Automatic annotation (TrEMBL), chain A:
<dbReference type="Pfam" id="PF00528">
    <property type="entry name" value="BPD_transp_1"/>
</dbReference>
<dbReference type="InterPro" id="IPR000515">
    <property type="entry name" value="MetI-like"/>
</dbReference>
<feature type="domain" description="ABC transmembrane type-1">
    <location>
        <begin position="100"/>
        <end position="293"/>
    </location>
</feature>
<feature type="transmembrane region" description="Helical">
    <location>
        <begin position="137"/>
        <end position="156"/>
    </location>
</feature>
<dbReference type="GO" id="GO:0005886">
    <property type="term" value="C:plasma membrane"/>
</dbReference>
<keyword id="KW-1133">Transmembrane helix</keyword>
<keyword id="KW-0472">Membrane</keyword>
<protein>
    <submittedName>
        <fullName>Multiple sugar transport system permease protein</fullName>
    </submittedName>
</protein>
<feature type="transmembrane region" description="Helical">
    <location>
        <begin position="272"/>
        <end position="298"/>
    </location>
</feature>
TrEMBL record, chain B:
<keyword id="KW-0732">Signal</keyword>
<protein>
    <submittedName>
        <fullName>Multiple sugar transport system substrate-binding protein</fullName>
    </submittedName>
</protein>
<keyword id="KW-0813">Transport</keyword>
<dbReference type="Pfam" id="PF13416">
    <property type="entry name" value="SBP_bac_8"/>
</dbReference>
<keyword id="KW-0762">Sugar transport</keyword>
<dbReference type="InterPro" id="IPR006059">
    <property type="entry name" value="SBP"/>
</dbReference>
<feature type="signal peptide">
    <location>
        <begin position="1"/>
        <end position="19"/>
    </location>
</feature>
<dbReference type="GO" id="GO:0030313">
    <property type="term" value="C:cell envelope"/>
</dbReference>
<comment type="similarity">
    <text>Belongs to the bacterial solute-binding protein 1 family.</text>
</comment>
Amino acid sequence: MSHVPTARASFSPAGRRRPNWQRMAAWAILVLFVLITLVPFYWMLRISLSDNRTLAANAGSLLPADFTLGAFKRVLGIATLSEATAEGGSGATIDFWRYLANSVLTSAVITVCQVFFSAMAAYAFARLRWPGREKVFFVFLTALMVPPIFTALPNFVTVQQLGLLNTYAGIVLPYLFMTPFAVFFLRQFFLNISREVEEAAIVDGAGHARIFFRLIVPMSSAPIATISLLVYIGAWNEYFWPLLVGQEDDVRVLTVALGIFRSQTPQAGPDWAGLMAATLLAALPVIALFTVFGRWIVNSIQFSGIK
Amino acid sequence: MRRITRLAAVATMLPLALAGCGSGGDSGGDAASTEKTEISYWLWDSNQLPAYQACADAFHAANPDITVKISQFGWADYWTSLTTNLVSGNAPDVFTNHLNYYPEFAAKRQILPLDDFIKADGVKTDAYAPGLADLWVSNDGKRYGLPKDFDTVAIFYNKKMLADAGISEDEMKKLTWNPTDGGTYEKVIAKLTIDENGKRGDEPGFDKSKVKVYGLGLDENNGAGVGQQMWSMYALSTGWQFTDKNPWGTRFRYDDPRFQQTIAWWRGLIEKGYMPSLAIARSGTSVNDGFGAGKYALSTNGSWMINSYYGYDGVEVGTAPTPVGPSGKRATIYNGLADSIYAGTEHKDQAWQWVKYLASADCQKKVAEKAVVFPAIPEALTIAEEKFAAKGIDISAFTVQIHEKTTSLYPITDHASDISAIMGPAMDAVLSFEADPSSLSKANDEVNALFQ
Amino acid sequence: MSAITERQHGASAPRRDTSVPRRRRRAGDLPVALVFLLPAAVGFGVFYLWPTLRTMYLSFTDYSLLAPPEWVGAENYRRLFQDPLFWNSLRVTVEYVVINIGVQTVVALGLAVLMHRLTRSGLIRGVLLLPYLVANVVVALIWYTMLDAQLGIVNRALEWVGLDPVAFFGETATAIPTIALVNVWRHMGYTALLIFAGLQAIPRTVYEAAATDGASEPTMFRRITLPLLRPTLVLVLVLTVIGSFQIFDTVAVTTKGGPVNATRVIYYYIYELAFQRFDFGYAAAICVALFAILAGLALMQLKMLRAGDTDLD
């Protein structure tokens, strides 16, 4: 390990030495894409602060139509039936905080277990030598290609036979052990870890468990953090499976509960304001998570050898 | 524990069911009153949830041993979840059913025929608006649902645009239509169309490439082979029928000249600039939102959309019945929902009690109070009429066709979803001028081939 | 190109021995490997392998979901070859994937490199990831309203600058590109993040050395970033291409396969067959066909990946 660019301080962007038009153009492009990203969010915010009944007539306006917090009240379940229907919402009630807690719990369990088990598998695929390794890995990978509508039904029957319908366990079970994505992603990073490091540890008499926990995992903390975030978002947004398995109120997750703001009959449109308010509120916890852990994620990928 | 009580409930109910006595009337005060059962019930419309929750509460009050647990799923998820649950033997005891789906469920023995229950309890199937109950008799001659509501189609109009064009609301009630020149209906549509220079569709110099307000809105769906609120009211008013007989026809008639002329006239409105192109109609906003935004002066739609159309602030809405056609009569499809009992239910009798209650005047009056749908029982409909009127909505444009007996039953046949898969793209092709209306004869052959 | 990679390596890494990583080739790791694989294997077997095998079996049956499957041999596959709608759906899907992946990869690579070279701001990364936090269905709905020909704000803006409105989702020609770009919007930050993670693995010293040699940014991108990033790019491509083939939600919420069959992508066609028309056996056959195509693609991509394995040691 001759390259040890250790400290972050030693980094100085090469471009900084020539602040030229290239850099300006590069910034301009980046800002442009940030804007493209944000415009639809402004539009969601605008709709969420509007009254459904005046939304259509004010389609061209950049400001909320008939500003109201009614949609957020509906999402949080604190609007009365008459308040809700007066603004074109549905009469359904939801217990936002309970569903939020369910979502946090199931997503967290899925993330921790899936990332851990996937990391173990990735270790076996990347760092251990055994016959048939590549073939088995490819078979694992093919699991990515099975469309969920074909896994949903047999998995539903499996979970039902295990007696886990309407339990947290049933909601998290199919995602608990692995996803091909996580295994693939982590394997790729584990492959890149220098073999010398590992061999030095073996010489020191470390077993595989020790190498995995003390060496591979800490050295891959950034990819692990990244994949954890992505798995968490994925679990958080999961809709169809928890809809099937978690119908009962006490295990229902947020996405399923908020589905109520989507089109309920084949012809009628959604409760636009409610749907957008729900979307924004449901994204907040993940945004908070990113803000807290964001610096740690990805940024800390440094190939700093062993410590 | 719960499983044991369920088993016990089944054990006690089984002999009752076998005896066919179905424990009519009040089941409270029975010796087995300690046996509590929970019936699961599914529906898709969240707007109706409060109404049916009120029914469930009243039902529980009358039958303290039976609790009804209502679950609601949006339309798109409803059928996928229901299918998954049917396949795994886990479906709700009672669920809201749709005409497109029930024949398949009945044929595959997933839902219970209600005839024995009806006979045992002496339920009158003629208590409903005429014809509605017949929709739920399958081609095996058995009945799979009791009607809970119904719907018809009418024209929604923007009152201000009408006044600006000098068209009286009275005129709207007397519109005529034919597939050749469109009759007074097309004249009204033309007059209501305005281009960006303020020229009306029937004035010289009208620029059909720059239309500001279309006389008639085009639904984002083409209605596939049924066209319920899109084109069926025109086609049916020529005397055309979907099939050789209804219900349970086996030959479709999309090759009939009357049908194809109707479609040719309909899409002609696009060419004339009176109706938006299919591309525009499909580009994002629903037809009712377009109406609410003042883009369309008229819009044909079903009674289930009343609250949406009347819900737009700043738009004064009126309704008129569909125009009188070449047959000398108006026409509309007449359709409704019903509740079905899952064949695998462990609580057949309690499920039946609940279905019976849902179809009763008692529950339908409660639903009528909320003024969201038209109840199937006439005396409940009277209440709904009052409640709608209290909201400033006159529903006579929808009900007049029932009084004048000009309604046609929704076409019920086997292969409904296959037909829709054939006719959807075929109608799209015609509406987008990729194919001629005569191409529908070929689609008709494909449809009829399904029945061989 | 690989020569350059080699040379860059020479400057920073002592040796790349990836071509002979099997020094200690022995079955000796097998028991350990089994232990490490066990949980994942259980999950794989129960929740992926079993449903897949079941789907394969069902593809040889006539199965309406509500009645037991009946064996029909290769009938479904025969039907598949003669079904113009299947071939149409395949063509439409490929068109979608090409546009979606093409644009998305270029944009994401660009964004990742820009972020890498310009700023360490977590805020920008966070903002770019925002669309991924929003459910597919909602993303589809919001763009659907924004792009409406008569009322959508995007078309209002087009009119304002003097252009004619476009019925993005409504026209046969624009529907698929529109859907593809909407999904680029949702995934570009996410993909950029994956690529960014790979970029972070390239030692800063390489860039610093190149900068000292007077290399310009575009040169460094061509000679350092691209070659060293290749394994990551292939990884990202494998994952996104497979995901892209499974386009469904956006279509289901917006165009529903139309106009005519312009957006009847394969997954939507499968869904219609399985859950609306109860033709589950045939849907399973299409599913298996799709599976074979994807597996072939992945195999190809992996070959590329293996060729570029561990450019960095």
